[in-house]
Structures are given as C-alpha cells and as structure tokens.
C-alpha cells in the first residue's frame, strides 16, 4: 500500500524525503501517492524537505501541488519551517509556488491559456533567455531601491505578510534590504514569466505606484535598450 503508515504515522513518501531518496520520491509521486498525509508532528513531506534544505525534493513536491498551507504542531507552514532555518533558496521556491498556485486558482475558469515557453519550475532561474531581465533586477535592487522600497513593491504585487516576513528573516547587516529587494524582484519575475505577462510594463507600473517615476522611466529605457541590443546581436 503506497499510502501505508508506520508507527510514526509516516508514509513511504515521508520516509523517502527524510532519507533524501530523490528517485524514490519521484517514483512515489508518479505512482499517485498522497502527498499530503501528516506524520506525528503534523508535518507533510513538504515540511520535511524544507527542514532538510533539499531543493531537489522540494521541487518535485511543489510541482505535485503538496499543501502549502498545512501547519505542523508548532504552527509552522513549510514556508515558516524554511524561514526559521534561514534556508533562503527554499524560502524563495515556496513563495514562488504559493504565488503561482494562487494565480492559477484565480484563473481556473479562464479559457485563455498564457503563451509562454517558460517551464514550470521553482528553482533559481539561471537560463540565458532571462539573463537580461535578471541583470536588470540585480541592478535595480543594488543601486536604486531605497531601504523600504522592497516591501512597498511586495505589497503592490500582493505578497502576503508571511511571505514578506520570511524574506526579511535574512539579515546580513544594514544593507540587507538590497538582498531582500533582489529576492523579491526575482520571485515576482518568476510569476510574470510563468503567466506570460509583460515584465517591463509590470515593473514600470510598480515603480510608479511607489512614487519612483524617474526611476521607472530609467529602468524601462535600460531594459528595452538591452533587449534591442540583444536582438541585434542575435540577428
């Protein structure tokens, strides 16, 4: 029985995640196991992957649509577990998934499917096709945004209080806001690319909303200029 329980109320999937068996986790998910069974700590397998800081296992469980809102006996969601451990990549992956599935739920009756070649993945994006945009996000966060701007942008883009708190858990000194801003921008960009929305337009409108019109004009010009140059090189 694929969903059978041991004396710790663990399924085979719990055990495979806890032991770090990637191929077994993949096999169990492909066998349609229940990804949301809770163990004695009231944790689903996603909690365990977040706790162990296993991005590869987390990716499989996120794509399998494991319950992101489930709380354990300490009241922690998988995001809360990752934030408590200061697992930055895991935190960002979970927030990306939360935002994507929230978008998908609100658009489930929409017959228009976005045209996008961007693959469904929640891992850090290192593809060449998004390099120009990611560079622009880094420059914006490190050279232009003020300390409170990243939170203003996050609220504008409907990040939840828990998501903003999880990003802010990382502390590297008085300039931590630069990294917070960079992560927020990349998480937002991930959702924009998955849903086939125009990132330049979205970023411009967001900067306008936080009263940064001059910066909005500058960034839009830089991104559009970089994309034009790239097309010229390719052609």
From TrEMBL:
<feature type="repeat" description="ANK">
    <location>
        <begin position="41"/>
        <end position="73"/>
    </location>
</feature>
<feature type="repeat" description="ANK">
    <location>
        <begin position="8"/>
        <end position="40"/>
    </location>
</feature>
<dbReference type="InterPro" id="IPR000488">
    <property type="entry name" value="Death_dom"/>
</dbReference>
<dbReference type="InterPro" id="IPR002110">
    <property type="entry name" value="Ankyrin_rpt"/>
</dbReference>
<dbReference type="Pfam" id="PF00531">
    <property type="entry name" value="Death"/>
</dbReference>
<dbReference type="InterPro" id="IPR036770">
    <property type="entry name" value="Ankyrin_rpt-contain_sf"/>
</dbReference>
<protein>
    <submittedName>
        <fullName>Ankyrin repeat and death domain-containing protein 1A-like protein</fullName>
    </submittedName>
</protein>
<dbReference type="GO" id="GO:0007165">
    <property type="term" value="P:signal transduction"/>
</dbReference>
<dbReference type="Pfam" id="PF12796">
    <property type="entry name" value="Ank_2"/>
</dbReference>
<dbReference type="InterPro" id="IPR052457">
    <property type="entry name" value="Ankyrin-DD_containing_protein"/>
</dbReference>
<keyword id="KW-0040">ANK repeat</keyword>
<feature type="domain" description="Death">
    <location>
        <begin position="149"/>
        <end position="223"/>
    </location>
</feature>
<dbReference type="InterPro" id="IPR011029">
    <property type="entry name" value="DEATH-like_dom_sf"/>
</dbReference>
């Amino acid at each position: 029985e694929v969903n059978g329980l041991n004396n710790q109320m663990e399924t085979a999937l719990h055990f495979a995640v806890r032991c770090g068996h990637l191929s077994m986790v993949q096999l169990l998910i492909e066998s349609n196991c229940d990804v949301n069974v809770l163990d004695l700590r009231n944790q689903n397998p996603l909690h365990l992957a977040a706790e162990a800081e296993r991005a590869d296992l987390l990716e499989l469980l996120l794509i399998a649509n494991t319950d992101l809102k489930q709380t354990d006996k300490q009241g922690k969601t998988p995001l809360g577990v990752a934030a408590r451990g200061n697992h930055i990549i895991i935190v960002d992956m979970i927030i990306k998934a939360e935002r994507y599935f929230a978008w998908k739920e609100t658009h489930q009756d929409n017959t228009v499917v976005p045209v996008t070649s961007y693959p469904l993945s929640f891992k850090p994006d290192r593809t060449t096709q998004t390099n120009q945009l990611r560079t622009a996000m880094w420059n914006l966060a490190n050279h232009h945004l003020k300390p409170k701007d990243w939170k203003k942008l996050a609220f504008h883009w409907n990040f939840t209080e828990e998501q903003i708190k999880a990003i802010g858990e990382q502390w590297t000194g008085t300039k931590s806001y630069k990294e917070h801003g960079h992560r927020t921008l990349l998480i937002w960009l991930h959702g924009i690319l998955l849903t086939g929305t125009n990132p330049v337009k979205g970023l411009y409108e967001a900067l306008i909303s936080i009263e940064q019109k001059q910066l909005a004009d500058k960034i839009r010009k830089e991104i559009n200029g970089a994309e034009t140059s790239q097309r010229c090189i390719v052609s």
